[in-house]
């Protein structure tokens, strides 16, 4: 069940407007501070959320005032730019608010590692990998991290209760204030129900489930040609999205030493289970256990399907439509 809070919406816009305001130089800010002009906005949004734009506008102007309260000039040639930046922020939250608690589903090779980070960057919410959260909890020696460590040392599988506990701790951090994207969890209906129960204790719920659809017959080429940057999760493909450094050997295969991350220069790697044989087993698990989770969330009206068997721009366009609440 989705819900909206005018207070939270105002807080979100206030925070985002501060970020928008930082685009402008200090000199432009000084010129704007003493001007009589004020950015104006349409009354249509004010009818829905009465005071969000007032808060956003004050945030943009207030950020300038803080650093420039000793300067005074008589003109404001950046008022239109300020208004545009605030309007851009308003439009983003009009389309994608309320708090986004998202799950991205798709078979191996569907593009979760490609489009998840793009959603993360656009909305400013973190993508949470269960593996990363588990390792971080163990490293931090939190209470639930110690439980997980004990189970792993004994050679056991970490229980759903422990994983949910790790997620509960993680989403209390500041970067999850406006939402988060779950990657790799839930994988079964039992886990989905456990997640729902935990979120309900926080007064929250899953607000969007995006399913990336790709035929099984297409996935083998995608999987076997995939290379990843382990630390960031960035994904490359020898055919569709090769790293700039890639060189091909006489056998037609990429030279391992040439597979380097474009941004960091770190060596890329292939996952041990990114093989044709392993894919058969992984797809069986996906269809038998993960797909029923879509049926679990469908009655809430939050499930959106995306055709991921097309060009990257086409997929991203459908993802944007799936994200929007309009």
Notes on the protein architecture:
Helix content is 51%, strand content 10%. With 326 residues, it is an alpha/beta fold. The strands form 2 sheets. A 5-stranded parallel beta sheet has the order 2-3-1-4-7, sandwiched between helices. A two-stranded antiparallel ribbon has the order 5-6. Strand 5 and strand 6 form a beta hairpin. The longest helix has 22 residues, at 276-297. The radius of gyration is 23 Å and the shape is globular. The protein starts with 5 loop residues before the first helix and ends with a helix. Residues 1-75 have low confidence and may be disordered.
The helix/strand class is alpha/beta
Q: Average pLDDT, to the nearest integer?
A: 77
Largest sheet: 5 strands, parallel
Using the CA coordinates, give the radius of gyration. 23 Å
Core attributes:
326 residues; alpha/beta; five-stranded parallel β-sheet; 13 helices
